[in-house]
Amino acid sequence: MRAVFIKCLSAMLTLVILSCQNADRPVTSPDAVEFIQTYTDSFIDLYTASTEAEWLANTRIIPGDTTISSQLERANNALAAFTGDAYNIKKTKELLQNPTEITQTQERILKTILFKAGNNPATMGEVVAQRITAENNQMETLYGFDYRVDSALVTTGEIDQALRELTDPAMRLKWWEASKAVGKELDTGLLRLRNLRNSAVQGLDYTNYFQYQVSDYGMSSDEMMTLLEQLISEVWPLYRELHTWVRYELAEKYNAPEVPEMIPAHWLPNRWGQDWSALVEVEGINLDEQLKKHPPSWIIEQGEAFYKSLGFTALPKSFYENSNLYPLPTDSDHKKNNHASAWHMDLQEDVRCLMSVTSTPTYYETVHHELGHIYYYLSYSNPRVPLLLRKGANRAFHEAVGSLMGLAAMQPPFLAGRGLIDQQDYPDSLRQKILLKEALNYVVFIPFSAGVMSHFEHTLYNTSIDTSTFNSEWWNLKKQYQGIVPPYERGRPYNDAATKTHINDDAAQYYDYALSYVLLFQLHEHIAQEILQQDAHATNYYGSKKTGEFIRSLMHSGANNDWRQLLKEKLGSELSAKALVNYFQPLMEYLKKENEGRTYTLPVRIL
């Protein structure tokens, strides 16, 4: 009886929300209200079961044990069958054909329902089932893989540490090769996934899987690729300076007989060359030593304290009870996905993080980033946002908020205020190093994400490229957009692209991160100039309730808005890399001076 009462109350509340939020469309179709409520009731149960199964599959990986993978497959098949149900698709299309009879919120919900159906249309039921099985198999292969160096088992964390710290190029090559070994195992699986993903979405008239994912932004593939090229062009002059500086610095560091025209991939401190910031040590800010004094749990507590200082509430007790936050013991009988992530289990109050927190600067930033997602979830989990619109204004907004808070937590005044570094006036040389280290993260990432990753997946899903040319395509793009080359010719049987987790389990969406980095600097510039009146390079968000109010104003409506209008309303501008370029403008003069007399090997313009 109580459950019936709650459902009736929920339906009434939904009717009130959908009717009142849209004064420009006062007529609300009872048919639309009933369909949306019925759909939502079924969807949330299936979504929660699927997410729980995904959580288990990511936190308890036992090679050879099919129990968990079978449970995941059943849950995902049930959700896919519902979202792709022929009646749901037919009814949604019918309701969308009469826009004057539905509210703007209802229209957004119905378009969300149709988008969810796009990946799982009932007309392609057999293909969808095969795709789900293939995705689960690929995930097991990827996360259950045994990495080895000289026959000894190593973890991905150890690989990352080795690439950050080793100075012998021969040893670096061993560890870099170990990081790419899994690609051979993922080769045919990626090809099968490409074909199944494309076939599934074509059942609802999408051209291919890449175009399907891009459509969530209200854009065509061509519009997205044009935007990405614009962003790369905007940052290219600075990236060209960074590339030249790094070539010469690394040639000296590794005692190379000559400076290479392009950067050998194994010289860089990141498996994929997406983040070069470890190349710069900022002496005088001993964050590593300070963090080692504290247990990993302290870092999470500090992250929560930051958000509370901005006016956000404490994390739910269930967050700490249900999250998986720390590395597994070395003698554990299972593995887990070590890629940090935030989870909204039931689109309500059950929020969790999957991390492997250690007392390092990297995880200090990561914790603040992932909690940004968690507080985004909690912000739009309110009665004014229907369950089906509880997501970011667009996918990039979610990442932008997380990255914004990660950036804020690493600025010197913030760290000094938390007692992690000395509070003092730092010399210009130190400030320059901090800015250089940041650029080697944020600027370097744009050509990788908007260039290499997005163009590879665009080609993958838009053409008939197969395993014979996967690696040549990958390295051609790496050279074009990043000026990075492999240590030696790597054709078949290598598949270095597939070693990037997102290509397997978060496909055709990596441009989200490129857009989010651009957006985060737009948000940061606004907060620094308009709210804090502080230098954008030396801010301290901690305790600023006005900053918290601004951030919540971006988050509380979820996807119940037009993201372009939201951007213009809050920032007065469209999506652009200009704020990012502005932030790093002081670095240009320094780099040009450092690069005097050096040979540039990247073109003046990327286009």
What is the gist of this entry?
This protein has 607 residues and is mainly alpha-helical.
Name some characteristics of this structure.
Neurolysin, domain 3, 25 helices, 3 domains, 61% helix, mainly alpha, two-stranded parallel sheet, 6 strands, two-stranded antiparallel sheet, 607 residues, globular
Query: Which outline best applies?
Result: globular
CATH architecture of the largest domain: Orthogonal Bundle
Q: Order of strands across the biggest sheet? A: 1-2
Q: Which fold name corresponds to the CATH topology of the largest domain?
A: Neurolysin, domain 3
Number of DSSP helices? Answer: 25
Count of individual domains? 3
User: Approximately what portion of the residues adopt beta-strand conformation?
Assistant: under 5%
Report what the structure shows.
- 61% of the residues lie in helices and 3% in strands.
- The protein has 607 residues and is mostly helical.
- A hairpin with a 6-residue loop joins strand 4 (341-344) and strand 5 (351-354).
- It is globular and about 70 Å long.
- The model is unreliable at 1-24 (pLDDT under 50).
- InterPro entries: Peptidase_M2.
- Residues 1-23 form the signal peptide.
- It comes from Membranihabitans marinus.
Topology:
Elements: H1 2-20, H2 30-59, H3 67-83, H4 86-96, H5 104-118, H6 125-143, E1 147-149, E2 152-154, H7 156-165, H8 169-180, H9 182-202, H10 209-214, H11 221-253, E3 263-264, H12 287-292, H13 296-309, H14 317-322, E4 341-344, E5 351-354, H15 361-380, H16 395-408, H17 412-417, H18 428-462, H19 470-482, E6 484-485, H20 501-505, H21 511-532, H22 545-555, H23 563-571, H24 578-583, H25 585-594
Parallel strand pairs: 3-6
Antiparallel strand pairs: 1-2, 4-5
Helix pairs in contact: 1-2, 2-3, 3-6, 4-5, 6-9, 7-8, 11-18, 11-25, 13-15, 15-16, 16-21, 18-19, 18-21
